[in-house]
Amino acid sequence: MSELTTMTAADLSAALRSKDVSATEVTQAHLDRIAEVDGRVHAFLHVAAEEALAAAEQVDSRRAAGAELGPLAGVPVALKDVFTTIDMPTTAGSRILNQWRPPYDATITTRLRRAGAIILGKTNMDEFAMGSSTENSAFGPTRNPWDLSRVPGGSSGGSAASVAAYEAPLAIGTDTGGSIRQPAAVCGITGMKPTYGGNSRYGLIAFASSLDTPGPLARTVLDAALLQEAISGHDPMDATSIDEAAPPVVAAARQADVAGLRIGVVTELSGEGYQPGVLSRFSQAVELLESLGAKVTEVSCPHFRYALPAYYLIAPSECSSNLARFDAMRYGLRVGDDGTRSAEEVMSLTREAGFGAEVKRRIMLGTYALSSGYYEAYYGKAQQVRTLIARDFEAAFGQVDVLVSPTTPTTAFPLGERTDDPMAMYLADLCTIPSNLAGNAAISVPCGLAPEDGLPVGLQVMTPVLADDRAYRVAAAAEAAFTERWGHPLLASAKGLDGASGLDADDTKGAGR
Amino acid sequence: MTTAPPLVPYAEALERYEPAIGLETHVELGTVTKLFCGCPAQFGGEPNTHVCPVCLGLPGSLPVPSRAAIEFTIRIGLALNCSIAEWCRFARKNYFYPDMPKDFQISQYDEPLCTDGWLDVMVDEGDAEPQHVRVGIERVHLEEDTGKSMHVGGATGRIHGADYSLVDYNRAGIPLVEIVTKPITTAGAFAPAVARTYVAELREVVRSLGVSDVRMEEGSLRCDVNTSLAPRGSGVLGTRTETKNVNSLRSVERAVRSEIERQAAVLDAGGTVALETRHFHEDTGITTSGRSKEEAEDYRYFPEPDLVPLAPPREWVEQIRRSLPELPSVRRERLQAEWQLSDADMAALRNADAFDLVAGTVAAGASPAGARKWWLGELSRRANETGAELAGLAITPDQVARVAELVSSGALNDQLARQVIDGVLAGEGTPDEVVAARGLAVVSDDSALTAAVDEAITANPDVADKIRSGKVAAAGVLVGAVMKATRGQADAGKVRQLILEKLT
Ligand SMILES: [Zn+2]
Fold this sequence. Notes:
The complex is a heterodimer.
Chain A: H1 3-6, H2 9-17, H3 23-41, E1 44-47, H4 49-64, E2 76-80, H5 107-114, E3 118-123, H6 157-164, E4 170-175, H7 181-186, E5 190-193, E6 213-218, H8 221-231, H9 249-255, E7 262-266, H10 276-291, E8 295-299, H11 307-322, H12 343-354, H13 357-369, H14 376-399, E9 402-406, H15 422-426, H16 433-438, E10 442-449, E11 456-462, H17 468-486, H18 499-502, H19 509-512
Parallel strand pairs in A: 2-3, 2-4, 7-8, 7-9
Antiparallel strand pairs in A: 1-3, 4-6, 5-6, 5-10, 9-11, 10-11
Helix pairs in contact in A: 3-4, 8-9, 9-17, 11-13, 11-14
Chain B: H1 10-16, E1 17-28, H2 67-79, E2 83-84, E3 91-94, E4 104-107, E5 114-123, E6 131-144, E7 148-152, E8 164-168, E9 175-181, H3 191-209, E10 221-231, E11 241-246, H4 249-268, E12 276-280, E13 287-292, E14 302-303, H5 314-322, H6 328-339, H7 343-351, H8 355-363, H9 368-386, H10 397-408, H11 414-425, H12 431-438, H13 446-459, H14 461-468, H15 475-485, H16 492-503
Parallel strand pairs in B: 11-12
Antiparallel strand pairs in B: 1-9, 1-10, 2-5, 3-4, 3-14, 5-6, 6-9, 7-8, 10-11, 12-13
């Protein structure tokens, strides 16, 4: 594996700026790495080698001509296949889009291109971002680079795995109920769900409009901040985009300090149902933050226990409407159009053939929840719960500056373990969903390996709306302290892909200690 | 299939039943862009050329509301005396149809932008005293229009039985305002006239606001009419039907009338009126059953999550209120007073669709009497002859004002003025251009006239003798001869005066 693929985005950026390496070299190294490992990981649905090299060449020639380029110019990035790209197919992990070629770029895509970031390709995901394991992809699952028999989380599992497998230093994901933070946690990397409205959704194929949030995944907190800063900010094409200056997240990641900060441990996000190793690593993380000068208290958010059921009414309701447009009339798959069938029959046959089981389940749930006579009891009630959860956050942030919890109740689970048990699958997002419902920012940063399985555990840091910088500040402080304690980044312990000889990993004890 | 009972004659139906009506009117706004994207909102165009990812509902696209469309809706709401919501939301109306790009329509449901207003109308049926009716406005809301389907093949032009269908999305996303009245229960026999007058008045109001061209024939104003009957004195509302496809003012009136006659027959026969959608047929003047409301879809309305709530600031609403033009009813009252017209004169003007034309002519400098004389007289006659609408004649109020001015200054007499109008209508140019080109002018040169008069006297010695002997009335013959000789350009009064001077 080339050294260029193990470097952080920040280091690559510096090396590119000083012309120690070219964007073409960096891009080629990552394409080589993808060629080497993606047959086993399956993080990518589409690798855009030619386009990536062309973009890299352009960055190199602009830099050679003396152009002043941004920090991500020449740095590769993997893009979740839920964002439209004019030069690559966009599938949202579904057969129904039938390798659709969008006629327009998503705002996030445009901003990446403008920043000079090199889009390596499109990453695998649960179909329409519905799932927590990437097993709901119509194109086969992605595997966890720590242990190829386990899931990488989801729905941004391809993005998380690509970063953890050193196929890309950076990746873009989307987080509707935890779809960035949960895969980041179980893949041992950093993932951030920014404040809702902080990043544009224009060109993001909608799952649940009021929850979907694009965000960065990276191997370090600073890298995640660099990526977020490149893509965030107001977008006039998205009516829900916040028309305010984006929080200064890169500066916050560099500040990396928690002295005097009030940290609240959420009572409701631990206990029964949580893997012991997850809880023990989480407790150690809290102790570490305390040792760095933070003031830790316990905070109760009583309505969080209704978050999961509320989420599973609101998200399916919105998706039942958002996914109606896949009707075979204008683009995508068309089944049964043999000249004898009505438009309605073709719609029905196409949707039957084109959607996977989980998508159908959620469309039916949502259709039911919005039906006349049930609306108040289901959708209406869920919206009330949502308000109560936002109030819980407000009250909590009246007492503390940030809230913390484990990111996920368990470490990465084996492929196939939960595919027949939707409820067990849904529980993977137990800790992450409240921030989607309230729209506030939350980050997941590695906090060690669970002793019982040697798999990564994530620490979740939640902050008020638009206080994204605070999340980066705390996560960066924890990351620095942990790295110092372990003697290396957590990911250096991963052996699933390269084995003991791959990286200069010593053991899992360092991080497990 | 059961045969429908025959219709009950209108007057008879009214003896037993009280009608209630309600109107839902859709107005396509004349904004530059569509409601949620930057595509042009203009009518027509090559199919599927005014489209983009947003109005095609492509995956990933998002709506961003047009400020102009919201402002136009508020203008309509204020003109209809509505309250403007301080906070409201768009909602999704979910149903599958090929001409709906997203398979849901962004509309408003339980939180409309404007509520609870009214529109006053004056119903004038000619044989009765004009009646003042206040029509309550339930709501005014904003939504996006759908695309347009064209069903090819098959007999009906409907989707069922068609060989294939084509969809044009140019119309998809054009802002549409829906104006819903409260039930009108007190109109009695006037119900059809109230419906027509309401739509006519609404059209004038919307036009005066400059927010739509409100052309029923192009579909920029579309009307659905609800009708129900209840036994006289029962004080309840009967089951209503909703009649679609009512595309002219006359059809609005006929549709209500026909529904009253049909429903009376159903009720007389001991049946119940079905809650259903009906289609109006222009050719036969009757309605036929469409979709039954029992099979109606559940639209699963919910607040549109891609949009933030709409909260028009009060200062903005007040600013819009201050910028409203004088409303048609107020303007009519003011001008009626200024022109000193009786109610009957006023009714005649409006029935001839001449009010705005006369107002325009007066505004261009003509006297009210002069303007009325030309529009109600000569020009109405021309319109009748050619079957054109008065406003459709190829002459503008400015031009009519100029003709009137030329007459009042003595440069033209009425007969010459009619020739000028001929020329303008024939496309020969402005009144002044026609006068110049045709060489039309009243001959006031005394020597030329005197010569013509002498000639006429010489040519008609018998008549001249009669006048000399005191039969002054015979002068008309000589006047006619002089007018003929001067091709109408002489002032007839002047000619008569000269003849009498010479012979008496
Ligand atoms: Zn458009």
